[in-house]
Each structure stands twice: as structure tokens, then as C-alpha cells.
Amino acid sequence: MENQFLRDENDRVDGIYKVTGKAKYFAEYELPGLTYGVLVTSTITKGKILSLDTKAAEKAPGVISVVSHLNKPSAPGYEQEGGSPFKIFYTDKIFFNGQPIAIVVANTFEKATYAASLVKATYAKEEFNTDFEKAIGDAKAKKLQGQPDYKRGIENAYKTAEVQIEAKYHLPIETHNPMELHGIIADWRPNNQVTVYAKTQGVKATQGTIANVFKIPIENIQVNSEFVGGGFGMALRTWPVEIATVMASKHIGKPVKLVITRMQMFTMVGNRPAAVQTIGLGANKDGTLTGITHRAFGETSVYENFTEGVVNMAKFMYQCDNVNTQYFVVPVDLGVPIWMRGPGEATGAFALESAIDEMAHALDMDPLEFRIKNDPEKDQQRNKPFSDKNIKEAYRIGSQKIGWSERKNKPGSLIDGQWKMGYGVSIGVFNANRGRASVKGILKADGTLVLQSATSDIGPGTGTGMTLIASKLLGIPVNKIKFELGDSSLPPAPSQGGSATLSTVGSAVNDVCVSLKSTIAELAANSNMDATSNFVEVLKKNNLPSIEVTKQSQAGKERDDYSMYSFSIHFVKVKVHSLTGVVKVDKIVSVGDSGTIVSPKTARSQMVGGAVGGVGMALTEESIIDHRYGRYINNNFADYHVPVNADIPEIEVHFINKPDPYINPMGAKGMGEIALIGFSAAVANAVFNATGKRIRTLPITPDKILASS
Amino acid sequence: MINFQYLRTTTAKSAIALLLKDKNSKFIAGGTNLIDLMKRGVTAPEKLIDINHVPLKQIELVGDKVIIGALASNTAVAENSLIKEKLPLLAMALNAGASAQLRNVATVGGNMMQRTRCGYFYDIEMPCNKRQPGSGCGAIGGFNRMHAIFGTSDKCIAVHPSDMCVALTALDAVVVLANAKGERKILFKDFHRLAGDTPQLDNNLKADEMIIRLEIPINNLVKNSHYLKVRDRASYAFALVSVAAGLEISNNKITDVRLTMGGVAHKPWRLTASENFLKGKEATVENFEQAAKLAMTDAKSFGENDFKLQMAPNSIIEALTVAKSKA
Ligand SMILES: Cc1cc2nc3c(=O)[nH]c(=O)nc-3n(C[C@H](O)[C@H](O)[C@H](O)COP(=O)(O)OP(=O)(O)OC[C@H]3O[C@@H](n4cnc5c(N)ncnc54)[C@H](O)[C@@H]3O)c2cc1C
Ligand code: SF4
């Protein structure tokens, strides 16, 4: 099992498999008798299916079956649950355009695709609305769901402050669009044994969902997901189309593979919800914040509610005695959203961190100084000390690296021909989580260590991080350690989300290693060996081919005593063309303050990926719908613009790299989300500094620069 | 499966003969546009005639003309030393288009024939007069940020998406077409059409014809030419607006000038009035501004593309200024 490809101990343990094609993704598994599913989707936005004519499709060459609400196999879980979550092929109701209404299964993908085009549906159409901003207007009178209001001190204190700003910020729908398309291979065997190859951020979650819907024992279900081609949050739930594929397999008694199309990626597997936010800030003339008000509306669907932490940051990020927040979700006739990297916090940070910049400008203060002045000593929301926070040091490092001293506080001061230059800064913050996970360790007399846990790796380098933790504790070289994941039969771990995997699973790895170490020491003592003897010799002396231990690990009381967050500071330099409105990001410096950096290379990659995602959020990404039809217009990679290499300048990443004394044995906090949170505001703030134009609607495309006065 | 026949031929003559035989057949060159259209159900030819092996890849100087075969790849043209030396504007425009991977297989003929990127044209559930005459135009009153401001009709406001064609229009290129009987020549600027009442027709190529080659007169614009493409990201995005600008300046006077815009009309939009205004004048920013203003005389926007009324003249000024400043 030795991994001979690792050049240095920080290399990504699976890097070689990814670049040589050896890494196997769900869609690449070949099962005997594999069949192919293709979805038929609704062409109306709201209403009812009146008829579904599948005859021509069923007769088409190669077609095995067409499964829909008319003939779906039984899914007892659907009969028990309430109205939510969405039940696929359950009724004739249409909730959004592009909703799957049938799955055609054939012996080749091409034949299934063709046959799917032969399925004809007729509908009774109903009035609908997919326009979120319009829905907010219409919703005013209705009672909306959301999260409880928050208030500390005086409500809307900003309105009586010496200096006040109030501004409204708009974010469009963003679509995750990982490279790998969504889907699943499902193999339902006689006596209700089910094996799936999934694209999932949580093999245990997928296993649990299938068990729930079909009411079969959890042990009957094997979920495999060793490699995932990007998730960004969209694979945090088992989507109805996956259930549809399991249904189809159950129905025909053969394995079925579904890979949805890029266009279908926009409608049925979630998105970052659109949001409209109003921020009010009040301050004394000396720059002391006296009031923060953050009100937000987020998009949701009519058939399921989705909420996220849009207004969290306002409650604790700045020293301020008067804070109030409000968050509502407004339903539209679209597919339900899901967390997208940085989730709601990234949405909220765009508004809050833009507003902080607006206030600094109103006060004629350097925005960095303004932030430092209002940096809190403790968490005022929870009334607890922070476990660890080094923001001022992060400011110092970042501002020096970006060349902040070149910045002029007066917008539009730095000019090079038609280009105007500007600098921007923002903060990102995300809860530093730690959940519960189990890991099994097998230490072998051949000098190797195998670690196992049913966690996932959607790309951050989970295996690499875990290997490094173990290597450090046991003194075993990384190429002799194997971390196995993505298999539901391994010891349980939570889904990979909320930047918690390293903290959660890493702690269990730590505990396993500590335990193995003490077992070896005991064995050594029992066999009269030196306590520092190599474990291989100890095992051999004891005639043991291997020893193994499984540990469950979770947080303790420290979480009640401290407020735990990861922080990031983003510095951005941009240039903006006066005539064409084109914005070019010239330089990026991101500083992470997230405790110990366990795996330097993959940690850096996280920050780089977050910055690239942040450039997309700030400048290019927007999913566009024609609200007359409720259909997406730019649902492909030519028209939905993720940044390309030419958009990305040099990215410098720095870490504080000091252990958080309380969070977990490694002192390491998550970083996946903070890499992106706040980034878009740094760009918008830099654009303002360059031009004096405050763009409050993302993405900042050239037309918006030209239109803004 | 929608079956189609795949045929391959090695001469233009036999390609044209095959085309004539069956109304529902199509040439396939790089396939970068045609295959996408087939996948989306916009077109469903019964026969694909692969013309990639027809020997029309030449790039050569014959007399005072540069000849480019219809099957030369976009990359081959853009990287060719003759093109870089004599027609840098063309190389710049090609390099601004698509991505390296696409340019490697996309051909000159295919690039001319590529269809609009209007989202309604690609979605067969939506109305579109170009795809299905009489069904209506989805973009009018809908999402028309990428759409035309010049020469529009109430049937269609799509733009021709090519960058290469903008430069070729500016360069006074001539297109050589062939049918079974022989060849004919047509000015590049007359190859593409305005939408008018027949938005289904992108150009004047007849059903029995094949694009054979281009003939481009060499010129004195080499030094002072520039292709400016304004887009939503730095590469791999279609133009919001683009400008091909070429200047010949002697004794501080403009002796020749070419100006064509992309992303603003159903065809590359030559700015003849602006060119006429600039001829004989000094190459100053004030004159460039006047020329830009003249260019906008008949512009009309449709809501989401209102910004083009400002971006277009700004881009003309910028392209001329950069072209002039080249040493
Ligand atoms: C994602 C994406 C981004 C792009 N971005 C840009 C861009 O920014 N700028 C730009 O200019 N272009 C862009 N393109 C378009 C690209 O330039 C065209 O797809 C390409 O030039 C077409 O050439 P082809 O050889 O592949 O044509 P094909 O797809 O093979 O053919 C297209 C059409 O031309 C016909 N045809 C081909 N050759 C001949 C001939 N000799 N005579 C008669 N008819 C012929 C075919 O029958 C077919 O109808 C982009 C394309 C994609 C997919
Ligand atoms: S602009 Fe032209 S191509 Fe687009 S929808 Fe209208 S008719 Fe169709």
C-alpha cells in the first residue's frame, strides 16, 4: 500500500490518482447489466400534469422502462412523512420549470436520451412567479417564515447616530456548477439489498435517506463515494433525482445510472439563493460604531423552506452595543436552494462588509483603521470570550503584502491612463465547528497504518490532512499511512460541510493515534522493551500482525465556555477601465486565521479556491431566469461565467498558524468557508476606492460600472 | 437515437455533390457549433458530410492578396507568421474568440457560419423566430443584454457572435463560394444579412454552396490596428461589444481607416460614416469622439442592452486610441 508518488510529506495523498485518471468517480463504475436513466422534465413552471404519454418512448429501441408518478414502485417512507421534503414522482403537481416528471431507462445513454424526447406531457398551467424581488414586494402583507429576530440594546440605533448610512444590497442566484455533474448509480438487488455509487458530501446521510424513503434496514444499503468532483454544498443532501434512480432500479431489477445534464444542474440540485439585504450603520464622529441593523430576505421554494445564516455576522463581528437583525425567506416557483460555499454568511458578508466600507468613507476614515477601532474583545452576542482570534495580526500581514500604504482614501486618486486603481479589504468569519465522528486505526507489523472513517472528500484534501495528523503523532512517514473514506460501512462520520471535517474527524484520528501509541508502549513494557521502541519491533516481538482501535470523538464543555470562529481577511487590488467598465483584479492577498494549519498545501489550495470563487461571485456569476416563462436562460458554461485563468491574478495566501487552545487536540479550525466569505465585498470596496462607484448589486459586470454615476 | 449518416469526402466537388443529393444534409467542419445545436435539438440533419479532409487549409500570399482556405483552423490562421505580419488585426480577433481548445478545431468556414448565441434560439421550449419562424422573438421584452442595437427588426434582435468576422469585414475580405457549376465571389461585408423579415437566414450562402476560401487584400493598417473585445470575463466569453480598428496615418493625417463593430448587430457592423468622417483628419481624441458619436446615429436598445449605447461609442474611442498609440 505504500504510496510511492509522494515527493514531500505535504503532497496531496490522492493527487497522483486524480491527475492520472486512476481516481474513480461515481459515474465511472461499470456494473454488470448497467442501464442508463435520462430524465424527462416539466416545461411549465406551475400546475398539474394532465396526461403523460410514454407509449412511444417505451416502444423506442433499447428502452427498458419509463418510471413516473403513474407507475412508481412503492416508497413507503413517502406515505408516512408530511408534506416536505419534496417527493419525486409522487403526485401530478408541478412546482418548478425543469422538475423531473419521469425517468426513461434504456440500455444505452443515447437511446435513453432519445426516448426521453418522445415522452409527451400535457399540463393544466397555473399562474406562477419566479422573480424573487417581485415576490418580496408581493409578500409584504403575508406572514413570512425565517429565523427569530435578534436584538441587543436599542433597535435601529443607527437612525439617531451622529453619522448614519443605510443601503440595500442585491445578490442574484448563483449555481454551484462543480465540474462533475450530479447523479448516482443505484443497484437494487433481490431481498432489498441496495448498493449505490453516489456523488455525495455524506455517505451516511445518503444511506439514511434511502433507508427512510424505502423503509429498509440501514445495513441493507451500501453507499460508495470515494472521489467527488466538487460539491460546494450542492451534494449535502440526497436529491429527489437520486431517489428516482433508486426507484427505477427497484422497478426494473437492474442497476441504473443517472448523470444529469449541465442544464439540469441549474434547476434540480440547488443553488445559492438570491438575497436582498438592507444594512443600517450608525457611528460617532470618532468612528465608534453605535448601531448595526441587518435585515435580509432570502429566496426559497414554495414546496420546501431553506434558511441560512445570512445575518449571523452582524451579531458579533464588531464591538457595538445596539444590534438588531431580521431574516425572512420568500418563496418563488423555483427548485429549492441549498448551501453554497460560505453559504448564507458569504451572502451576509457582502452586505455588511460593503456597508462597513461605506461607513468608513462617510467618516473619512481608512476602512482598515475603522475595523480595527471596532474590533471586539469578546463575543457580545453570546457574552463569551473568543477561544482564539488574531485579526489585528492578520490585518497587519495582509495590508503589508498588498501594499495598503499605496492606497488613497479619496476614491479615484490612483490613475494609469484609462485604468483607475483601487484597494479593498473585508473580513470573513464562520463558526469553527466540531462534531462527532468515529475512526478506526489498524497499525500493522509491516510498518503501515490504515485509518478508516465514513467521511467524504469533495476536494479539500481530507485524506491528506488526516494522514498528516497521524504521521505527526505516530512518527510514521505519510507514504505508509492510508486514510480510507467515502464508504458507508466504515465507522460513522458526519457529512462534509460547514468546514468541520478536519476538526471533527481529525480529532478522532488524534484519539486513535494516541490510543495506538499507548497500546504500543504497554506492549513494549510487557515484553521488556524500551518504551521508545519502534512499533514494528514491538508488534513482531509480541507476534501480532496488527493492532486496531476504534474511537469516537466529540467536543466537550469547552464549547460552552468559548465562542469559536475562524476568520479571514481579504485584500484586493483592482483596476477599472473608465471607458469600457471592465474590472480586472490585479492582486489578491488572503490571510487565514484558523488555528493550526495541519496541511499547508491543501490549506493554501482552499484559500486559492475560495478567492477564485469570490472573484466569480463578485464579478461574473449569475443565473438568469426569464420570469415570463420561469426558465433559465444562461444554463451552460458558455453563458454562466465562472472565472477563467485570465481573470485570476497572483494570489498570496498567509496563515496566522497559531493553535486555538480550546477547539480540538490539533488546535485547528475549519477554512473551507472563510476562504470565500467576505471576498466579494473586498472587490466591491476596491472598485469603489478606484472609481467612487458603489455597486451594491452583484455581479459587478462592465454595464453596471458604466451605468453607475 | 436520432440516427444520422456520416459521410466523409476529400474534394470540394464531391462535398457539394453530396450536399445537393439530400436536402437535409449538412457539412461538418470542426463541429464546435453544429454538434451543440444537434444536442440541443435545434437542428437534426440526416446526413453529416465531413469536409475536414478537403484540402482547403492553405494560408498564402498570392500577389497582393492573402488567401485563406475555408478549412484552415482558427489557431492555424491566428498563429501563422504571414497573418501576424500582414493582417495582425485578424490574428488579434481570432485570439479573442472562444478558447484555445475550440480554436484548435474551429475552422474559418465554420466560424462564418456559426449561429447566434441567443439563449432563446438554443432552448426549443422558447419562442424564437430564427429557429421557428412565426413563433415570436423571446429576446424582445426578455433577456436581451447580449443583443443588437443596430439594424434590428421586430422579428429578431440577435447578434452574430463571431470575432473573426468583425476583423474580416474591416479588412475588406472577399469570400469565394462554390457550387456544382463553379465559383462566385462576394464581399465579406455582404456575406451576412440583417434579420429583417427572414431572421431564419443568417447569410447569403445558398443551399447548394460551399465556402471555399477568403481573399484579403494586404493593406497599410498593419502598424496601427487593434481589436478590442469588451466582455464579462477576460477570456472565453462572447463580446458585449467589440471593435476592429485600423488606421493608416501619415503626416499626422488619417489616410485610411477601417472600423467595424461586433456584438451590436445581426452581422459585423461596418462604421462607414465614421470612417468617412475620419479620413483626412488628424488622429486626435476629439475626432475619435466625433466618429464614435456618428456611429451611434441609428442605435436602438431594448432594455437590458441599454448600456451598449454608452459602451459602444466608448469602445470605438478606446480602440482607435490604442490603435493610434501603437508604435
Ligand atoms: C463555448 C464556446 C465559446 C465560443 N466563443 C466564441 C467567441 O468568443 N468568439 C467567436 O468568434 N466564436 C466563439 N465560439 C464559436 C466558434 O468560433 C465556432 O463554434 C466555430 O468557429 C465554428 O467552426 P466549426 O469549424 O467548428 O464549425 P461547425 O460546427 O463544424 O459548423 C458550423 C456550421 O458551418 C457550416 N460549415 C462549416 N464549414 C463550411 C463550409 N466550408 N462551407 C459551408 N458551410 C460550412 C456547417 O455546416 C455548420 O452549419 C465559441 C464556441 C463555443 C462552443
Ligand atoms: S433575437 Fe432572434 S434568435 Fe433571439 S429569440 Fe429573437 S428571433 Fe430568436
TrEMBL record, chain A:
SMART domains: Ald_Xan_dh_C
Presence of keyword Protein biosynthesis: no
GO molecular function terms listed in the Swiss-Prot or TrEMBL record: iron ion binding; oxidoreductase activity
Top-level taxonomic group: Bacteria
Keywords of this entry: Molybdenum, Oxidoreductase
TM helices/strands, residue ranges: none
Domain Aldehyde oxidase/xanthine dehydrogenase a/b hammerhead: 20-127
Descriptive protein name: Xanthine dehydrogenase family protein molybdopterin-binding subunit
Protein's organism: Pedobacter frigidisoli
Lineage: Bacteria, Pseudomonadati, Bacteroidota, Sphingobacteriia, Sphingobacteriales
TrEMBL record, chain B:
Name of this protein: Xanthine dehydrogenase family protein subunit M
PROSITE patterns named among the record's database cross-references: FAD_PCMH (PS51387)
Record-linked InterPro entries: CO_DH_flav_C (IPR005107), CO_DH_flav_C_dom_sf (IPR036683), Diverse_Substr_Oxidored (IPR051312), FAD-bd_PCMH (IPR016166), FAD-bd_PCMH-like_sf (IPR036318), FAD-bd_PCMH_sub1 (IPR016167), FAD-bd_PCMH_sub2 (IPR016169), Mopterin_DH_FAD-bd (IPR002346)
Annotated FAD-binding PCMH-type domain residues: 1-221
GO MF terms, alphabetically ordered: FAD binding; oxidoreductase activity
One Pfam family, short name: CO_deh_flav_C
Keyword Flavoprotein part of the UniProt annotation: yes
Key words of the record: FAD, Flavoprotein
Gene3D superfamilies (UniProt xref): 3.30.465.10, CO dehydrogenase flavoprotein, C-terminal domain, Uridine Diphospho-n-acetylenolpyruvylglucosamine Reductase, domain 2
